[in-house]
Amino acid sequence: MQDLIVQKYGGSSVANVERIKRVAGRIIETKKKGKKVVVVVSAMGDTTDDLIDLAQKINEHPPSREMDMLLATGEQVSISLLAIAIQSMGHDVVSLTGAQCGIVTSNVHKRARINEIKTNRIEKELEAGKIVIVAGFQGINENKDITTLGRGGSDTSAVAVAAALEAELCEIYTDVDGVYTADPRIVKTASKIDEISYEEVLEMASTGAKVLHPRSVEMAEKFKVPLVVRSSYNYNEGTIIKEDVIMEKVLVRGVSLDENIAKISIFEVPDQPGIAFKLFSALAKSNIHVDMIVQNVNRTAVNDISFTIDVDELQEAVSVAQKFAFEVNAQKVEYDQGVAKLSVIGTGIVANAEIASKFFEALFELGINIQTISTSEIKISCLIDKERGKEAMVHIHKKFDM
Ligand code: ADP
Ligand code: ASP
Ligand code: MG
């Protein structure tokens, strides 16, 4: 759709009445430039965390379906308040839940994927001249149950809406000026990146830089949605994310830290074909995303297998692992939440063996033990003690002179 801009405002940008009014003003400015505007909003401030706490006070492991029902209310509050603010400033506006704007997802609760957006309702409202406010993070499955897309999922809602409507731009408004070489709240010397490729920012997002939901970048790349990350607090330029970034090839673009993971180990698993298949297909069937995998070869006929997962999926992953261990007669299952994954990202990594050695040297200088290493063409990750994660991140950022 011509002249259409999709804007997404994160939780901190709509955390209170004063900020909601400021965001409303900003949306109206865009509208006055002659643009059609669709806005995707997250829940106010820490609402999602507060709702999770509330549920856990009743049941430590609440059912996923009811959690989605509960969490989706957060975004319903913020869309309506934002619409009230825009309306009181004299502009036509309508707020829509995920279901109302036809965001159809898979059946998995708490981490659903968007399958389709039936855009007719949004299009009708835009044609009537209205600003459309869409609830981020939520959709509806084929049973008409409310689903959510995983923490941070409003970014994905925004990109999906932008892709479906063929918007000219998708702007992600947040509480920092753009994508930095490292989390600016941890590494004070981190610098803002002006332009970055989908590929590099996807690795940063997937390794813990929570400024963008990884799925949102995947989708932006697939549908070639031009993305900008910028602050809702100022008018600074932000970071442009697109396919071809013309700039000097930087060896290491950024460093990220994921503290939101856990390691599961299964000891003394029989050393025979089909074992890994059995375990990881069971995890996949439960929609548990597995990251780093190591298998230690023992001298006897058994192995130990370890893997990392998102900490939010720990409970489910442990029960799948325990069932597997029982079936194959493994010795025991253990888990560890005291780990973090530290990664360096950059398209220059594949061609430069020194980058890995410099990374390991930096950890050695701090006396930090590496539990697991994994690499891809543009990334090297190490699993380390969570307590030392931030300190290691600061040191590596300095070591690579980012
Ligand atoms: P929102 O509520 O707007 O979605 P988030 O808290 O999800 O905001 O994401 C923004 C936060 O991401 C920043 O406050 C920052 O601390 C963190 N962050 C982590 N890594 C990076 C990075 N490389 N660049 C920018 N921000 C980052
Ligand atoms: N409100 C949701 C969360 O806190 C979605 C989002 O902020 O993107 O995870
Ligand atoms: Mg976010």
From TrEMBL:
<dbReference type="InterPro" id="IPR018042">
    <property type="entry name" value="Aspartate_kinase_CS"/>
</dbReference>
<dbReference type="GO" id="GO:0005524">
    <property type="term" value="F:ATP binding"/>
</dbReference>
<feature type="binding site">
    <location>
        <begin position="8"/>
        <end position="11"/>
    </location>
    <ligand>
        <name>ATP</name>
    </ligand>
</feature>
<dbReference type="InterPro" id="IPR036393">
    <property type="entry name" value="AceGlu_kinase-like_sf"/>
</dbReference>
<comment type="subunit">
    <text>Tetramer consisting of 2 isoforms Alpha (catalytic and regulation) and of a homodimer of 2 isoforms Beta (regulation).</text>
</comment>
<feature type="binding site">
    <location>
        <position position="48"/>
    </location>
    <ligand>
        <name>substrate</name>
    </ligand>
</feature>
<dbReference type="GO" id="GO:0005829">
    <property type="term" value="C:cytosol"/>
</dbReference>
<feature type="binding site">
    <location>
        <begin position="210"/>
        <end position="211"/>
    </location>
    <ligand>
        <name>ATP</name>
    </ligand>
</feature>
<keyword id="KW-0547">Nucleotide-binding</keyword>
<dbReference type="InterPro" id="IPR001048">
    <property type="entry name" value="Asp/Glu/Uridylate_kinase"/>
</dbReference>
<dbReference type="GO" id="GO:0009089">
    <property type="term" value="P:lysine biosynthetic process via diaminopimelate"/>
</dbReference>
<dbReference type="InterPro" id="IPR002912">
    <property type="entry name" value="ACT_dom"/>
</dbReference>
<keyword id="KW-0808">Transferase</keyword>
<keyword id="KW-0418">Kinase</keyword>
<protein>
    <recommendedName>
        <fullName>Aspartokinase</fullName>
        <ecNumber>2.7.2.4</ecNumber>
    </recommendedName>
</protein>
<keyword id="KW-0028">Amino-acid biosynthesis</keyword>
<feature type="binding site">
    <location>
        <position position="180"/>
    </location>
    <ligand>
        <name>ATP</name>
    </ligand>
</feature>
<dbReference type="Pfam" id="PF22468">
    <property type="entry name" value="ACT_9"/>
</dbReference>
<comment type="similarity">
    <text>Belongs to the aspartokinase family.</text>
</comment>
<dbReference type="InterPro" id="IPR041740">
    <property type="entry name" value="AKii-LysC-BS"/>
</dbReference>
<keyword id="KW-0220">Diaminopimelate biosynthesis</keyword>
<dbReference type="InterPro" id="IPR054352">
    <property type="entry name" value="ACT_Aspartokinase"/>
</dbReference>
<dbReference type="GO" id="GO:0009090">
    <property type="term" value="P:homoserine biosynthetic process"/>
</dbReference>
<dbReference type="InterPro" id="IPR001341">
    <property type="entry name" value="Asp_kinase"/>
</dbReference>
<keyword id="KW-0067">ATP-binding</keyword>
<comment type="pathway">
    <text>Amino-acid biosynthesis; L-lysine biosynthesis via DAP pathway; (S)-tetrahydrodipicolinate from L-aspartate: step 1/4.</text>
</comment>
<dbReference type="GO" id="GO:0019877">
    <property type="term" value="P:diaminopimelate biosynthetic process"/>
</dbReference>
<comment type="pathway">
    <text>Amino-acid biosynthesis; L-methionine biosynthesis via de novo pathway; L-homoserine from L-aspartate: step 1/3.</text>
</comment>
<feature type="binding site">
    <location>
        <position position="185"/>
    </location>
    <ligand>
        <name>ATP</name>
    </ligand>
</feature>
<comment type="function">
    <text>Catalyzes the phosphorylation of the beta-carboxyl group of aspartic acid with ATP to yield 4-phospho-L-aspartate, which is involved in the branched biosynthetic pathway leading to the biosynthesis of amino acids threonine, isoleucine and methionine.</text>
</comment>
<keyword id="KW-0677">Repeat</keyword>
<dbReference type="GO" id="GO:0004072">
    <property type="term" value="F:aspartate kinase activity"/>
</dbReference>
<keyword id="KW-0457">Lysine biosynthesis</keyword>
<dbReference type="GO" id="GO:0009088">
    <property type="term" value="P:threonine biosynthetic process"/>
</dbReference>
<dbReference type="Pfam" id="PF00696">
    <property type="entry name" value="AA_kinase"/>
</dbReference>
<feature type="binding site">
    <location>
        <begin position="174"/>
        <end position="175"/>
    </location>
    <ligand>
        <name>ATP</name>
    </ligand>
</feature>
<feature type="binding site">
    <location>
        <position position="75"/>
    </location>
    <ligand>
        <name>substrate</name>
    </ligand>
</feature>
<dbReference type="InterPro" id="IPR045865">
    <property type="entry name" value="ACT-like_dom_sf"/>
</dbReference>
<dbReference type="InterPro" id="IPR005260">
    <property type="entry name" value="Asp_kin_monofn"/>
</dbReference>
<feature type="domain" description="ACT">
    <location>
        <begin position="264"/>
        <end position="338"/>
    </location>
</feature>
